[in-house]
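May I ask for a sample protein chain and its fold as tokens?
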Amino acid sequence: MKPALIIALWLSILLCAYGSALAEGKDVVLSFGNLAEWTEKSFKGHTTYSVVKSNGKDVLHAQTNGNASGLYRKIALPTRELPVIRWSWKVAQTLAAEDAYRKSGDDFAARVYIVFPGRFFWQTRALVYVYSDKLPVGAVIPNPFTKRAAVIAVESGNQHAGIWRHETRRYVDDYRNYFHGDPPYTVAVAIMTDGDNTGSAAEAWYGDIVFSAE
């Protein structure tokens, strides 16, 4: 089980080292062709991350069996100029043991994080887009470890398991709807496939993450 302090640590680590890029109205593409651009953070053991080919493109393959680690990339982006996030992902299957409302069930086959700074590290906030087993598409709930992370179900169930899904979110609106204010610049983006809390195995693939204008 991940204690609440680990989630705070996760956010604070991302906050303490931001600023690897700053965009000025142009799309920003975060790819996985070079994993040296990403940093791993372990919570329990290591999810295995590797670069594989899919339809001739480099994508990230994630595989875990009762472990939890994520990859993050430091990046400062102007949210007003780049309010939209797009990405693609695929899961082998969702996690039947998932319970998004409980710490003991806080595992997902795939997650994409956007992290935002606060005045102090404990005020750091995050949007967490998940490929859920049980949450209905569109559900927004607090992470069971901290209300400063909004869990947003973008996919649900196994009807599209094994199929690439292409997502688009206006994350600025998601931030406003949950945190009731305008988002500051971003400080990091992260992905995670984990199964530590439920002792589950999970497998997922991630394509490029793109920030763009309207």
Q: What stands out?
A: The two ends are 40 Å apart (CA to CA). The chain has two helices and 13 strands.
